[in-house]
Design goal:
With 319 residues, the protein is of the alpha/beta class. It has 14 helices and five strands. The protein folds into two domains: 4-122, Rossmann fold, CATH 3.40.50.2300; 150-316, Orthogonal Bundle (Hypothetical protein af1432), CATH 1.10.3210.10.
């Protein structure tokens, strides 16, 4: 569905030009000749953005903006003022009422389209942040449930997330990929929810049948996320973080670049945190010793490029 823009302008020549420009850019456009008509259109059609003149009959731009912001659905709608008035008092009043920007007449088609794109991009960024924050709360709750059942992994999930983000940023991953990593790292052991506390907290070596149960947690976790649309992109972190570069891992025995990069990255940071954490059956390794082990396993257990980058980061880090 095309982005819907409401244009409020009492000059019929200007409004005709704006309609042509915006429709040529693929926007759906509703036009209103005054503020009162524009407010009715806003309440009826819920546009994605409003472009409004300041000086209009019946209800001016300031009155329209104030009414939109007071409406339950109007708090976050971008509002762009058009005006020939450049007085500081006018722009100050608009800011106080919640205007997003001013576009001063005369303007050309490029000025208009660039201003509208900027406001729409900002709104989408805010919406993504709000949605991501809400999802993150749910993910953190699930991660805390996992950790509460396994006494050996207190703080493990958050440390893996922090280290994973550091490594991914050093590899110039995109912001979108980093957002998925943020969720995937927190959820990578989700499948352990289905494993009994007896197995998770056993002090001695696991029996063969217990080990088989434990080895199922990547697939169990992946299945749990498969039906959750907004978390499906995180599935490779759950499914592939125990695969090995040499093909000796689980659950699928993938090797080399056949392993999703998400799993290859998490395998390094997950192993490092496990090595540097105290367990009932062994003491924690020092940072340098853990880094040396990752170097030894580069090209065998770990992706050699990611292993090298991670060791470099850890050795220059003060923590």
């Amino acid at each position: 569905m095309p982005t819907h823009i409401l244009v409020a302008e009492d000059n019929i020549d200007i409004i005709a030009v704006m309609r042509d420009v915006l429709e040529s850019e693929g926007y759906r456009v509703t036009c209103a000749a005054n503020g009162r008509e524009a407010l009715s259109a806003f309440e009826r059609e819920a546009p994605d953005l409003i472009v409004s003149d300041v000086m209009m009959p019946q209800l001016d731009g300031f009155g329209l903006l104030s009414a939109v912001r007071a409406h339950p659905a109007g708090a976050a709608v971008p509002f762009l003022f058009l005006s020939a008035r450049t007085e500081m008092a006018a722009t100050s009043q608009a800011r106080q009422l919640g205007a997003d920007d001013f576009l001063f007449k005369p303007f050309d088609a490029e000025d208009l389209t660039l201003a509208i794109r900027a406001k729409l991009d900002r709104r989408r960024a805010v919406e993504r942040f709000d949605t991501r924050a809400a999802h993150l709360q749910t993910v953190l709750m699930l991660a805390n449930v996992v950790e509460a059942r396994d006494r050996y992994t207190r703080g493990h999930i958050e440390r893996v997330q922090r280290l994973g983000l550091q490594l991914a940023r050093s590899m110039n991953w995109s912001e979108e990929a980093l957002a998925v990593l943020e969720f995937g790292a927190l959820l990578h052991d989700l499948g352990k929810i289905l494993i009994s506390r007896t197995i998770l907290n056993k002090r001695g070596r696991l029996e063969a049948d217990e080990w088989e149960v434990l080895r199922r947690h990547p697939e169990d976790g992946a299945q749990m996320l498969a039906g959750v649309d907004h978390l499906r992109a995180a599935v490779p972190y759950l499914l592939a973080h125990h695969e090995r570069w040499d093909g000796g891992g689980y659950p699928r025995g993938l090797a080399g670049t056949a392993i999703p990069v998400e799993g290859r990255l998490l395998a390094v940071v997950d192993a490092y945190d496990a090595m540097t954490t105290e367990r009932a059956y062994r003491a924690a390794l020092a940072k340098d010793d853990a880094c040396a082990e990752i170097e030894r396993q580069a090209g065998r257990q770990f992706d050699p490029t990611l292993a090298e980058a991670f060791v470099y980061l850890r050795r220059k880090s003060s923590d």
